[in-house]
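Trying the structure run again after the queue cleared.
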Amino acid sequence: MSVFLCFSCVGAEKKEIKASEIIQLIKKGKHVQIVNKIILDDLDFTKESDPFILNANVLQVEIKSNIFFSNCIFMGKVTSNGKVDPLSVHTVFKNNLVFVECDFRGEVDFEGAIVYGMVNFSKSVFRDNANFNNLAVWSKDSYFSEVKAEKGFSMIYSSFYGNLYFLDAHFDGPASFQESSIKGKLSFNNNVFKERAGFDLMEICGGAFFNYATFEKNADFSFSRFLHTTEFVNTIFKEKGNFEKTFFLNTVRFVDVDTTNLILTDTFFGNNK
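Done. Tokens:
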């Protein structure tokens, strides 16, 4: 048994690959399937091709390749946007965008990206700031389960046209989801938020679940609209949980929750027994 384990460790040793090699694969129209590698330098998806003019302010890059990384370490920044003065550049991913069990040492920036395939960052670690603002995802399911964000994590103004899962996620820095729209269900079950968490001005069309989540600092749900069943079961609010002018248009359950830290000014409860 010990001999087998030794060989397994040797086989699992990570090898280095340059980010430019990945871009060359995409330029050739090949799918990216990279496992157990160390990616050197910045991985910039806007370098895949010459962008075309989308409108007076935006250039767009289109990637048709399936993007799949597993158990990889990214030493530099990973980004899908940039700038060609005075225009901004954004990327459209026509296929899947998958980074499972990856270790991001630099910034991650997918602001303004559009994804038509599945998005999956499960079990990944963000050691620097992670930016998913203005992200639009058209797949049935998107996964950020068991992610760990050591600094800021931002997903504001984003749109998911299916379900979004953050099961067992851990946020050491501030987490921001303001003004995002989820057409399916949203799950933040069993999460830990060490710093401020912002869920204000959101619209959740499917069920929303924050069961067994722990908010160690202020959590803001004000002015959000929950259109389906919403649950806070064994949820811990160590400081303030702000639900001012929050709309619960269907059943909402606060079970085994200390309500003394909740702000419920002008909260609307539409269908509770």
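Confidence is low (pLDDT under 50) at residues 1-11. Worth checking whether this holds up in the mutant runs.
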